[in-house]
C-alpha cells in the first residue's frame, strides 16, 4: 500500500510518500516548502492573499507528485495557522476545488497526539519525558513515558506568533526577551504544575528547530551524524546551552551566515532558543534529545 501524508504547518508544508510492504515501511519521497502561511497577520487570524496563493500553488505541485507516485491513500492535516484563521475554511475549500486534496483541520489536542505517535516511532522515549514541538503557530507539549501518554496540551505561542508580536530588535534586546518570557510564563502555568507533579527527566524536541540546534552542534563538533537519516540525536547539554547563547546574542546577518540554519529559521530560531531555555529552566531538566520523527510520522502511522 502506498500512502501520502501532507502536513500543512504555519511555516512549512511537508509531503511524505511511503509504501508498506509486509511489516516494512519505505519512504519513497519527501519534501518541504517554506510556504509561510502565517506571514504578516497570524495574530489577527488572517491568511494574507500572498500566503494564500503560495499555499495553493504548493499544493498544486504536491498533487502532481502524488499522482506520479500513484498513491492509494492521502491524509492532509492542517494545524494552527489554518485552524485559527478566519479564512482558514476558504483556504481548505479552495485547495479542494483546485487540487482535489481534502484537508482535515485538526485540533491542538489531535496535533499533540499525532506528534506523540511520531516521536514514539523514533525510539526517543526511554524515560519519563516531556515532548515539545515548536511550530510557527502553536507549541505542543506531551508528558509520557515508555508505556503511555500521560498528558498533552497545545498552546498558541508558536514562533511566528511571538516573532510578529514581540521580536523588534536586532540582536534581540532585553525588553523583547522579557516581553516574550512574560507572555509564555502566563500561558504555560499548568504545564509547570504538571512538571512539578511528575518531574520528567528528559526534554524531547520534535524535529523543526531542534534539528537546527543539532545541525549547528554537529557542524561545530565535526560529528559524523546526518540529521537527514538519523531518528534521534542526544545533545550534550553544555553544547546546547552554548549554541543557544550564541543564537540569542547574534544579529540577523550573523545567523544568516551560519551554515546549518535554513533561511526560514534565521529569526524563528531565536524564539525557539528562548522558549526551550525557559522550559528547561522551569522544569529543572538537563537532558535534551531530538526526535526527527514528528507529526508527519504520527500521521503515517495512523494510515498504516
Q: What structural class results from the helix and strand content?
A: alpha/beta
Q: Report the β-strand fraction as a percent range.
A: 15-25%
Q: If strands are numbered along the chain, what order do they take across the biggest sheet?
A: 8-7-6-9-11-10
Overall 3D form: globular
Helix content: 40-55%
Number of strands: 11
Rg, Cα atoms, Å = 19 Å
Task: Please give a structural write-up.
46% of the residues lie in helices and 22% in strands. By secondary structure, the chain is of the alpha/beta class. It has a six-stranded mixed β-sheet, sandwiched between helices. β6 (129-134) and β7 (139-144) form a beta hairpin. α4 (108-122) crosses α12 (295-303) and α6 crosses α11 (268-283).
Map the helices and strands.
Elements: E1 2-8, E2 13-21, E3 24-33, H1 49-68, E4 73-78, H2 80-84, H3 88-99, E5 103-105, H4 108-122, E6 129-134, E7 139-144, E8 149-155, H5 159-166, H6 174-187, H7 189-198, E9 202-206, H8 209-220, E10 232-234, H9 237-249, H10 252-256, H11 268-283, E11 288-291, H12 295-303
Parallel strand pairs: 1-4, 4-5, 6-9, 9-11
Antiparallel strand pairs: 1-2, 2-3, 6-7, 7-8, 10-11
Helix pairs in contact: 1-3, 4-12, 5-11, 6-11, 8-9, 8-11, 9-11
Output the keywords.
304 residues, six-stranded mixed sheet, 46% helix, 11 strands, alpha/beta, single chain, five-stranded mixed sheet
Quick recap of the structure?
This protein is an alpha/beta fold and 304 residues long.
